[in-house]
What does this fold into?
Amino acid sequence: MSRNIRKRIVGITGTSYTPPENEFQIREHLDRACEVINHRTLVFEKALLAVVFISYIQPFEDGNKRTGRITGNGILIDNGYCPLSYRSVRPVDYKKAMILFYEQNNLSAYKKLFIEQFAFAVNNYFR
It folds into this structure.
């Protein structure tokens, strides 16, 4: 398994969405995602976008959703907020939210999960 930007085409089970196909496209999408994130002022918006953009672009052969969540948590932690564990999210709900974003660029379901996970973290880890 490669540790760098993927060199082969990947598919995502359960969706007709096809991520960028080659290294040039992947880098272009990552650059644009970084621009969008860096122009945002709200920490939660930055973290949310980091999660979904990395998951959407699929820059690596494996672990893209985990990498997105870790990146989003890094943004939260760096700004004094708690990380999100996603441990209370049903896998089917997570997959549905991501597929809605992949296929329709609709963030509403994932945004709801993100907000619920922040509330879960605050209520369960910081009482």
About this structure: The chain is about 60% helix and 0% strand. Residues 23-125 form a domain with the Fic-like fold fold (CATH 1.10.3290.10). The helical segments are 23-38, 43-57, 64-78, 91-104, 108-125.
